[in-house]
Amino acid sequence: MARIMVASRLSRWTPHFFALALVNFVGAQALVLGGVTWPAESLGSAGTLVAIHLLVIGWLLLLVLGALFQFVPVITTRPLESQTAALVCLVAVEGGLLGMIAGFVGATGGIPGLSGSLPVGGGLVTIGILIAAWNVGVPLARCRPGSLPGRMVMTGLAFLAATVTLGLLFGSVLSAPAALPRLAPVLAAVGDHALAGLGGWFTLTAMGVSYKLLPMFMLAPEERGALGRGVHVVGAAGFAVAIVAGLATIWHPAAALIDLQHAGEIAIGVATALYLWDVRRMYRERKRSVIELHDRAAIGAFAFLGVALALAAAAAAVHRLDGIAPALVFLIVFGWLGGLGITQLYKIVPFLAWLVRYGGRLGRGPVPRVQDLVRDGAALPWFVAYGAGVSIAAVAAVLRWPTAFRIGMVPVTIATIGLCLEYWRAWHARYVGTAPSVATARPLSTPSSLSAHPGDRP
Amino acid sequence: MEPLTLDLRDELRRGGEPLPRILDAVARLAPAQDLRLLTTFEPFPLYAVLGRKGFGHEAIHHGEGDWEIRFRPDAQRAPTKPAAAPAASTPATPATPATEGWPTPSVVLDNRGLQPPEPMVRILDAFEHLDAGAVLEAVNERDPVFLYPELQARGAAIHTEKVADGVRLLIRRAG
């Protein structure tokens, strides 16, 4: 049966999303190194609030949206609704983020002129997110039931909506507490906001995208069967139950609701464990004997997710989950999501650069291979330094030791900047021609009758 | 019957021009005898040349710069199969309205088991050596969404269909 063929080129603004995301990532790390964030300062300090929003909106949100704009057409074989909308989304999210930052600084610094920036900034970010959700949600919805990655991204988008709704409620209550007295207790739902954002949205989406990217480049089976479906269903149900029950306990702290919340948290743990098991299965079932550097380094990100799971389980067993929460957030943001982000960028950036630069020349003469755009020897030390630094900082975060935390963040920041340089070199093909590399399928010097040069046809 | 083997690797490495030797060997083949070529790369243009003489082909990639190509003088054309590809049969060309009147594919590529973007590289390589109006058939594990814009820019007519273990493409060069 003939199928509708969908051509996909580079998503025009995706490289800009990635570049800005990395700038925000380094900016947040600079604040941590400067000692103006938790654990040196309180969780509610301006420095911590600015850093956390730089990380989750500036870094992770822009990274994931940029990636989805590129890969949803690949997952669904349907085009985005609009390329221009992606640019509007980028401007709205980054502009809104800057507004929110000004608002946090104004609120804690007592600068009245900046007090309006927080709701305006939050509103702009919301507009950007709505545009993005429409842009990728429509092609995803049109290919229902779709593949497992597509379904997981759709679920992630639902949790993104929940995250944004809670964020807007916080903003409204903070801006006009007298106007919404019955909603004021919602401010206690910061944990649910974080669970919806980092868990339901980022983690389920990252898991879904990894179910496409890992098999594609390791040549592992893309069909994940019952295990993959289990990760999706149990994870989605777990996050939904934990968040809804958690919110309900704020107004009605009944024992049954608290039990329900715990059941949701256990389901999240089970889904995470199933996912890690399935990832292990993917690595073992791969057809390529050599694992490329980005997927070797990604093992570190999966390990951090496993450590976060073990830490959460241990803390929950001794009823210390609240106390360990900031350290868990750090492990998830820097170790799991950040780690997966920086490692997959190391494949995505050269792949897209190769398509843009050489796609039109394929078959018409020698072109470099994708792997000629990167130099693994230069990137490997940065991945090692990043993982080592996150490990040190995570231990320090658990122990609430600010100095050790900042010491751990030094290699993290240096490594991030080093990797940014490697992405830049890949994007601009700086390594091409500097190493002994060859062309597509044959050496450069082949006889004219058999080579692929135009005009040489026998 | 034993195939007639030509080891062209030394000659190719020296920058030699082996086409006359190949054509000479083809002329010397007994009926139903295979031609086995050992080369340093996959000779896409040769597929079209010998395809016109009624030869199907099978390519085995033994390693970097080491290819074995077997040409069979029969109608039961085997797909070119990369070394890592799983054993699977290529579906026969069905006559569908969209491709009615298209000639039998002169090049058949089995791209299953190849890492992206290798399927795209192979298809565009082979496409650039098709004669005007000739058809290339390829079986990929995934829908090659990044390939289509390149083929469209080169004036190709493309027909795709989902098959059991991937996507089958028929690509016709304008002419």
Give the topology string of chain B: H per helix, E per strand: EHHEHEEEHEHEE
Q: Specify the oligomeric state.
A: heterodimer
Taking the sheet with the most strands of chain A, its summary is: none
State which percent range the strand residues of chain B make up: 25-35%
Strand arrangement, major sheet of chain B? 1-2-4-3
Mean pLDDT of chain B equals 81
Number of strands of chain A: 0
Number of helices of chain B: 5
The helix/strand series of chain A, from N terminus to C terminus, equals: HHHHHHHHHHHH
Coarse morphology of chain B: globular
| Name of the CATH class of the largest domain in chain B | Alpha Beta
Q: Under the CATH scheme, which architecture of the largest domain in chain B would be assigned?
A: 2-Layer Sandwich
N-to-C terminal Cα separation of chain A, in Å? Answer: 36 Å
Q: N- to C-terminal separation of chain B?
A: 39 Å
Offer a concise description of the structure:
The complex is a heterodimer of chains A (458) and B (175). Chain A has 458 residues and is an all-alpha fold.
